[in-house]
Amino acid sequence: MGYQYDELILLKLIMSIKESCPHYSVREILNAQDFIPVKRCWYYLEKFCGRDWYNYGVCLNLGWLQPENIPQEVYKAMELI
C-alpha cells in the first residue's frame, strides 16, 4: 500500500511531538507547522480515522493516535523520511 509523502510526515510529526510533549493537542501541532496546508492535514486525519489509526471524541483535530493499530510497514516507510 502506498502512502503520500506528506501523509507520512504528518503522522511522524504528530507521533514524535505527542511522545515528547503529550499535553500538546493535535490542533496545536497542526497550527504550529507550516509545510502541509491545514485542509490537507484534516483530510489525512479523516484518512487515519478510516484506517483506525486515529480517534477523536467531538472535534477531529482534538483526537489521539492509536499507534497499536498502525501497521509495521508504515513505521518502516516513516523511517525512510
Overall mean pLDDT score? 91
Radius of gyration: 12 Å
Q: How much helicity do the residues have?
A: 40-55%
Biggest sheet strand line-up:
1-2
What is the percentage of strand-forming residues? under 5%
Largest sheet: 2 strands, antiparallel
Query: What structural class do you assign from the helix and strand content?
Result: mainly alpha
Distance between the termini: 17 Å
Unreliable stretches (pLDDT < 50, length at least 5) are none
Helical element count?
Answer: 4
Can you count the beta strands?
Answer: 2
Could you state the oligomeric state of the chains shown?
A: single chain
Write the layout of secondary structure elements.
Blueprint: H1 5-20, H2 26-32, H3 38-50, E1 54-55, E2 64-65, H4 72-79
Antiparallel strand pairs: 1-2
Descriptive notes:
This protein is mainly alpha-helical and 81 residues long. It has one domain. 54% of the residues lie in helices and 5% in strands. The chain is built from four helices and two strands, in the order αααββα. The protein has a two-stranded antiparallel sheet with strand order 1-2. The mean pLDDT is 91.
